[in-house]
Design a protein that fits this description.
The complex is a heterodimer of chains A (310) and B (240). In chain A, 34% of the residues lie in helices and 27% in strands. Chain A is built from 11 helices and 14 strands. A 6-stranded mixed beta sheet of chain A has the order 6-7-8-3-9-10, with helices on both faces. In chain A, strand 9 and strand 10 form a beta hairpin. With 240 residues, chain B is of the alpha/beta class. Chain B is built from 9 helices and 10 strands. In chain B, the strands form 2 sheets. Chain B has a 6-stranded mixed beta sheet with strand order 6-7-8-3-9-10, sandwiched between helices. The chains are: A alpha/beta (310), B alpha/beta (240). At the A-B interface, helix 6, helix 8, strand 12, helix 10 and helix 11 of A face helix 5, helix 6 and helix 9 of B.
């Protein structure tokens, strides 16, 4: 059985088309990532699948139930962590958790083993009000509350946005452990590096899915020669390479620039060209594309440049 | 006056018996892109609030843009640029009105506002949408406008507090190009971010852990020092 199926879902708000003909499926026990920037439509899709919003067109199922006719069944079987912290700020950690357990007709004890790994990290603060927790602790409590009724499918909407690199890493380790317990997870994120941690991902932008595949297959699909280039004065290098005839695209990636060329180039050829132009301490290597390279290649950059209509 | 855009020694902030910032000392050179990193709760925001004149240090001293952070907080507020992750633009005002509003706040004359408006609209290619409300603009455009507006009074230094959260990878890069451009023109940039690839774009980077600066150097030296290939790895080794 598939944990989630989405077929041809569209949704508009007034003149803004938030989702355009979206189709995807998530298998049982799969960790599926929806990767895209703010405004891509990720949260809208989450709300439709968690039965909080009706789609204009299209169909879907969650845990085997159609999203419209069997919405009550779905609500019992899913855990949902919205992008915005939505627990009761004026209840303590413990009170929040027992509140959510009671709502679903269960107890903290009954499913304790599922949340144990995560809960022990916030248990020392169980008497503290949720509103007074740090960002990382709020996130862990929200995850516990979403898990306390032992859901079959877990929806996590941007759980790591605004969270520092250490907490992000810990959070993804928790997700791997939940996956091993057989829970299907649909998680959204604007961080491209997190894509590598998913079984499969869908790249989404402006309400449209650009591509769906495993991270490995997506990376391998990048069709052009790609080089990492570096020298002293990165900004000048960027400007210079942008003007060069062999360049398709050149974009900053950490301490290197990623240079995609029209045809395959000898490393010496690029090196000599740059040296002639006066660059020093040049480093060049041929590289494999990252998920972010693929996203940038597929994404509609024209819109970022010229369109002002959403 | 000092050669540095920022120079602080022993900067400390205590709330009751909790020390949020614990005697940090560092400087930022003029025209430098300085990355100010740290885990959530490490004390970054508290430190930054002291630097921009919003909070008085419990101990320590320093200068920002030539002004004393203890005694000349008002001059600092007028003299620096600040852009936060939450856009400070008014969504229901037009692009032009937003520029005029901030120009007014910073005490620019009518003539200066008119010149600045023309300059920003031209540079950011916003002429066509000058009379549209900011709420109707795509995120990336708002962000660049917000950056431009933070420099409406031509400050020597701009503070950027997580300026690129949640935006498109392409737009994020476009934004960094405008940062490079400004630094190239001699403006000092002080920036916080959770994206470790962006830490690589900085000239120097400091990493705060539990109120102290645990590391400060160029990304290249930091990677060498912590035997790491990426800044992500450096950060994890320090902050975990």
């Amino acid at each position: 059985m598939l944990a989630i199926t989405v077929s041809h879902i569209s949704k508009s708000f007034g003149t803004v088309q938030a989702l355009k003909d979206i189709s995807l499926s998530v298998e049982d026990g799969e960790l599926f990532g929806l990767i895209g920037p703010d405004g891509a439509g990720k949260s809208t899709l989450f709300r439709i699948l968690t039965t909080l919003l009706l789609a204009d067109k299209g169909e879907g199922t969650v845990a085997g139930h159609p999203i419209v006719s069997k919405y009550k069944e779905i609500r019992k079987k899913v855990g949902y962590m919205p992008g915005k912290f939505s627990l009761y700020q004026d209840l303590s950690v413990e009170e929040n958790l027992s509140f959510f357990a009671t709502i679903f007709g269960t107890t903290i004890e009954a499913n304790y083993d599922l949340i144990k790994d995560i809960y022990v990290q916030i248990e020392p603060f169980k008497k503290r009000l949720a509103g007074q927790l740090s960002g990382g602790m709020k996130q862990k409590l929200a995850l516990c509350c979403a898990l306390i009724h032992k859901p079959e499918v877990l929806f996590l909407d941007e759980p790591t946005t605004g969270v520092d690199a250490v907490s992000r890493k810990e959070f993804w380790e928790m997700l791997q452990r939940l996956k091993e317990k057989g829970i299907a997870i649909l998680v959204s994120t604007p961080y491209m590096d997190e894509a590598e941690l998913c079984d499969r991902i869908a790249l989404i932008q402006n309400g449209r899915i650009l591509q769906t595949d495993t991270p490995e297959a997506l990376r391998a699909s990048y069709p052009y020669p790609l080089y990492a280039v570096k020298s002293r004065n990165t900004y000048q290098l960027l400007k210079s390479l942008r003007e060069t005839f062999y360049t398709r695209t050149v974009l900053p990636f950490g301490d290197f620039l990623h240079l995609s060329t029209k045809e395959k180039m000898a490393l010496d050829q690029i090196q000599n060209d740059l040296r002639t132009k006066g660059f020093e301490a040049i480093e060049i290597k041929e590289i494999e594309a990252t998920v972010e390279d693929v996203f940038l290649e597929l994404s509609d950059t024209e819109e970022a440049r010229t369109t002002t209509e959403r | 006056m000092t050669e540095h855009a920022i120079e602080v020694t022993g900067l400390t902030k205590r709330f009751g018996d909790f020390t949020a910032v614990d005697a940090i000392s560092f400087h930022v050179s003029k025209g430098e892109i300085f990355g100010f990193l740290g885990a959530n709760g490490a004390g970054k925001t508290t430190a930054m609030r002291m630097l921009i004149g919003l909070s008085k240090p419990t101990e320590g001293d320093g200068f920002v843009a030539g002004y004393n952070i203890r005694t000349e907080a008002e001059q600092i507020k007028k003299g620096i640029g600040y852009m936060s992750q939450k856009f400070s633009l008014y969504n229901d005002l037009t692009v032009k009105e937003n520029i005029r509003f901030y120009g007014g706040i910073y005490g620019l004359s009518k003539k200066q506002i008119a010149e600045k408006t023309a300059e920003i609209l031209e540079e950011l290619d916003l002429l066509e949408v000058a009379k549209k409300t900011v709420g109707a603009l795509p995120l990336g455009w708002k962000q660049r406008l917000s950056f431009a507006v933070s420099m409406v009074h031509d400050p020597d230094i701009v503070f950027l507090d997580e300026p690129t959260g949640g935006v498109d990878p392409y737009v994020r890069r476009q934004f960094w190009e405008t940062i490079y451009q400004q630094a190239d023109a001699g403006r000092t940039i002080f920036v916080t971010t959770h994206y470790m690839d962006e830490a690589e774009y900085c000239d120097r980077v400091s990493i705060m852990v539990a109120g102290s600066i645990e590391a400060l150097d160029t990304p290249k030296e930091l990677k060498k020092q912590f035997a790491s290939t990426t800044m992500d790895d450096v950060f994890l080794k320090l902050a975990r």
